[in-house]
Amino acid sequence: MGTTESTKVFIENDDIPWEKTGEGVKRKIMGYDNNLMVVKVSFDKGGIGTLHKHFHSQVTHIESGVFEVEIGAEKKVLKAGDAFYIPPNTMHGAICLEAGVLIDVFSPMRDDFINGEKY
Fold first, then answer.
1. Cβ contact 86:101 at 8 Å
2. For 114, which DSSP code?
3. Which residues are within 8 A (CB) of 3 and not within 5 positions of it... i.e. 6 or more apart?
């Protein structure tokens, strides 16, 4: 990218609308610049984060709920307070076992999210 894209410095949750990304799944892009992006993802019980991969590094904090997380060939059930790391170009996804919210951090930022793509 030639120019730096970014959001405002102070970000208030109520100012950002939810965007539906799938059945029982919605997200808010909380903040970003070219190097970093934070996204809040809300899941209803049974909501699925479809298996996918991308070139970005990702760390996800589980703010609330319970999720079965699949990264590469491994699956693990994680709960509020836990986190997971996804290396670049690694297949991953999640199934929500108990309604909750994930906080995704990406590096670099996800241009595809800004352009309206779902994953």
1. no
2. H
3. none
Q: Is residue 51 part of a domain?
A: yes
Global pTM exceeds 0.70: yes
Render pLDDT for 31-86 as a digit per residue (tens, 0 to 9).
999 999 999 999 999 999 999 999 999 999 999 999 999 999 999 999 999 999 99
Is residue 53 assigned to a domain? yes
* Residue whose token pair is 């930022």: 109
Give the CATH number for residue 48: 2.60.120.10
In a domain, 6, yes or no: no
**Domain count for the chain:** 1
| 85 found inside a domain | yes
Domain membership of residue 107 as a residue range: 18-114
The verdict on whether omega for the bond into residue 108 sits within 30 degrees of 0, i.e. cis, is: yes
Residues 6+ apart with CB under 8 A from 46: 24, 95, 96
CA separation for the pair 27, 32 (Å, rounded): 14
Residue 10 burial by CB count (10 A; 0-12/13-18/19+): exposed, middle or buried? exposed
